[in-house]
Amino acid sequence: MKRDSRLSGILHVLLHMAEQDGPVTSEMLATAMQTNPVVIRRIMGGLRDQGYVSSEKGHGGGWTLTCDLNAITLRDIYDAIGAPTLLAMSNRTEAPGCLVEQAVNAALVQAFNDAEALLLTRLGEVTLAQLSADFHTRLSQRGGKFDLETVHAS
């Protein structure tokens, strides 16, 4: 089963944008993310609808952050992308009348709900500013300078 990495990718894009002094084009972000600009525009369109980014067309245009990194949590972005399923596991439902299956599913439902609640709480505790600070610490340790097109070099 393929894992859903949209949240990670969107956070990645937002942090790249936070490092820019002006608008960033979909093409620049796509190069940094090793994807297609259409994918970036689709992602960014949803964030624009939530008020986290804005866009301008034409020469000098592109995407700009419109949110305070201290005020936006990972949970906010998770919700903005439609709150995708967090856990890949689920219950067996082939024999709903089976008392054993019912007992197993009851226990698993509670465990899954507890795990999701814990994860959502943690996502709500981490801000984009905290991610940005961690990035800057790592960049400083590397002794590097931020450049959108070369930042992924090891």
From TrEMBL:
Give one Pfam family: Rrf2
InterPro entries per the record?
A: Tscrpt_reg_Rrf2, WH-like_DNA-bd_sf, WH_DNA-bd_sf
Identify the stretch annotated as signal peptide in this record. none
> What is the protein name given in its UniProt record?
Rrf2 family transcriptional regulator
**What is the species of this protein?**
Tianweitania aestuarii
